[in-house]
Amino acid sequence: MPGFNRVGVLCADEFDADSGKNIASDGGRRSSGAVEVFGAVLTLLSVAFILLTFPLTAWMCAQVVQEYESAVIFRLGRAVKGRAKGPGLLWFIPWLDVIRKVDLRTVSFNVRPQEVLTADGVPLMVDAVVFFRVVDPSLWVMQVQNGYQATVTLAQTTLRATLGANTLMDVLTHRPGIAKRMEEVLYGVSRLWGVRVERVELKDLTLPVSLQRCMAAEAEAARTARAKLILAEGEVKASRALMEATSGLSSVAFHLRYLQSMSSVPSGASVVVCCLPTELLDVFISQQH
C-alpha cells in the first residue's frame, strides 16, 4: 500500500533523526563527563605528587597576591569555582593552573579631544577624564579581551553621543549634568565587564575662533545695552528727586541754594555764570505751585 509505505518511511526518518539527536547529546555528555573525570584524576595525582615532594615543590606552588590585587585561577582551561583569590599567599598547581592577576585600584585615563557636533550644529573640540575600577575580577578576565581599551573606546563614543544630543548653551551651562549622564551610560554598559565607573569630568571645551568672536561681540553688546539702561534709569530717578526737592523750596531758599552751588565750583574751572533776577525765580516758583 503506497500510502502506508510513505507514512512508514516518514516515521522511520523522524525516528532516526530524533535518535541521532539523542545519540549526539548522549555522546556529548559522555565526552564531557570523561573529560571531567580525567581532569579530577589528573588533579588528584598532581596533589599527591606535590605532597610527596613537598619540601622541593613548595616554592613552585606558592604565589603572593598583593593587597590591591585579586587572582583568577584557570585549571585545565576552566575557571576555578568561587570568588577570585587573594590577597595573601596563594597555592596552585603550576603545570595545571594559569593565574591572571587583576589590579583593583582606581584607574584614570584621558579621553583624547573629540570633535563633536552639537544639536544646534555647532562644532566643538571636547576632552574628558574618566575614573573607574574593577569590582569583579572574574568578569573582567572572562567577558572582555582588553578591558582597558574597551573602556576607553566606550568613553569616546559615549562622549560623542551625549554631547551631540545637547545644544551649545546646554553644554556650556550644564556641564555637571552632562558628565553625570555620561557616567550613568558608561556604568550601565561596563558593569557587564565587572567595572564600576566612579567619575566622569569634562576637562575642556574648545570653540571655533569665529564663534568665539561672535559670542564676545554679543556679550559686549548686551553689557553696553545694560549699562545704558542703568544710566537712563539713574537720570530719571535723579530728575524726580530734584523735582521733589525744589517743589518745597521758597524763593529765598532757592536763591541761597543757587549761591551755595556757585561757591562749590572750583576756581580753576571754566564756568560761564548767568545771573538771573530774583523776580524771575519768584514767577517760576509761583507757577509751579
TrEMBL record:
Entry similarity comment: Belongs to the band 7/mec-2 family.
Stated role: Plays a role in the regulation of glomerular permeability, acting probably as a linker between the plasma membrane and the cytoskeleton.
Key word Transmembrane helix present: yes
Residues of the Band domain: 60-219
Pfam families: Band_7
InterPro entries reported in the protein's UniProt record: Band-7_stomatin-like (IPR043202), Band_7 (IPR001107), Band_7/SPFH_dom_sf (IPR036013), Stomatin_HflK_fam (IPR001972)
Transmembrane domains' residue ranges: 37-60
Descriptive protein name: Podocin
Gene3D superfamilies, A to Z: 6.10.250.2090, Band 7 domain (3.30.479.30)
Keywords, ordered alphabetically: Membrane, Transmembrane, Transmembrane helix
Provenance organism: Acanthochromis polyacanthus
Gene Ontology, cellular component aspect: cytoplasmic side of plasma membrane
Database matches in SUPFAM superfamilies: Band 7/SPFH domain
